[in-house]
Amino acid sequence: MSLLFTPFHHWPRLATQAHDGTHDWIQYRRGLCPLCGVIFSFLPAFSLPYTHYSLIARSEALRRRFVERRSWENAAPLLKDPNRVPDPSTLRRWFHILDSSRPAFSFLRPMLQAVAQWLGHGEQHAFGSLRLSWATIYPCLRVFWPWPLRL
């Protein structure tokens, strides 16, 4: 993969789904590698490719389920479109990616309680350029966590 990209300035921005409390659809740009001719999509940091829900929505669901101790049905994040609600099985799949231990989520629960204490005391933690907050907890755990939460 080459590292030189030239954005397609003449192409219109494309739109894709990225549901959370402030977004239904987001715009993104396309770019072309001048060396190999491969076309790339440049998504915003809060959006994963091929998904309908943003990382912000996943982070909110994590907090609601494991810190506020809500049921699977009530842990669904609040979205801009009130008629769209992720299924509880979708939430389980999101969280299983982070922690597949037995019993279920035995590492994720205490870790999120510790994060709640850190944030409650105003402590500042950063993973690279990403500052730890409730809006960024999911990508912090998925991308920057120093060890896998899986056994």
Structure keywords:
151 residues; single chain; disordered C terminus; 6 strands; two-stranded antiparallel ribbon; alpha+beta
Q: How would you summarize the topology of this molecule?
A:
Layout: E1 6-7, E2 14-17, E3 25-32, E4 39-42, H1 55-67, H2 88-98, H3 108-120, E5 126-127, E6 130-131, H4 137-144
Antiparallel strand pairs: 1-3, 2-3, 3-4, 5-6
Helix pairs in contact: 1-3
Shape: globular
Distance between the termini: 33 Å
Helix content range of the residues, please? Answer: 25-40%
Quaternary state reads single chain
Kindly state the number of beta strands: 6
List low-confidence stretches. 146-151
Provide the β-strand percentage band: 5-15%
Q: What's the alpha carbon Rg, rounded to whole Å?
A: 17 Å
Structural class: alpha+beta
Helix-strand topology string: EEEEHHHEEH
Structure annotation, total helices: 4
> How many distinct folded domains?
2
Mean pLDDT: 76
The profile of the biggest β sheet is: 4 strands, antiparallel
